[in-house]
Amino acid sequence: TITKSHSAWKYGYLIWLGVAPEFQRMGVAEKLLHRFRDLMIKDGARMLLADTQADNRPAIRFFEKNGFGNSEEHIYLSLNLDPERQRLKKKRKSSAVREKSTGSNASHAEKAAKPAEKPHG
Questions:
Q1: 114: number of CA atoms within 13 Å, CB side?
Q2: C-alpha Rg value of the chain to the nearest Å
Q3: Share of the chain above pLDDT 90, in %
Q4: Which residues of 42-77 are buried (b: 16+ CB within 10 A; e: fewer)?
Q5: CA distance 45 to 96
Q6: What residues contact residue 15 under an 8 Å CB cut-off, 6+ apart?
Q7: What does the alpha-carbon distance between residue 75 and residue 93 come to, in Å, rounded to a whole number?
Q8: What's the whole-model pTM score?
Q9: pLDDT level of residue 91 (50, 70, 90 thresholds)
Q10: Residue of 34, 101, 88, 95 whose CA lies nearest to 62
Q11: Burial class (CB in 10 A: 0-12, 13-18, 19+), 37
């Protein structure tokens, strides 16, 4: 679901709906869409949004047949985060190796923040 600022409405957003070729034209997509619609109603959504490629005529006909309208063409841009995820994963792994070699799980900042123990006596 999506909520937008300055709107009291909650939107159900269908990003992807696909059916294996051997099960197409058997009502599977319609059943999936109806189940999704019911879940969104239960979750408080007041409107459903669906995405498809502008040249995907079968999908557009399917959604229109199921009550969707007001189609608009828009552009989505993407950014592959996998290289950044890999970099962060390596960084965490090397930090863990350093901490293990020092024999402590406490970071340097945590060690510095601890007050020195007073001698008993």
A1: 8
A2: 26
A3: 43
A4: eeebeebebebeeeeeebbebbeeeebeeeeeeeee
A5: 44
A6: 51
A7: 37
A8: 0.60
A9: confident
A10: 34
A11: middle
Q: Quickly count: other Cβ atoms within 10 Å of residue 33's Cβ.
A: 19
pLDDT at 46: 92
How far, in Å, are 10, 17, 44, 48, 108 from residue 32 at the CA level?
A: 20, 8, 19, 14, 52
Alpha-carbon span 54 to 86, nearest angstrom: 33
Structure tokens at 56: 């995907």
30: its two tokens: 């319609």
Antiparallel, parallel or unpaired: β 2-3 and 47-50: unpaired
Residue for token pair 């799980």: 105
Do 15 and 59 meet the contact criterion of CB atoms below 8 Å apart?
no
Please state the length of the chain.
121
Query: Cα–Cα distances in Å, from 106 out to 83, 89, 111?
Result: 28, 19, 6
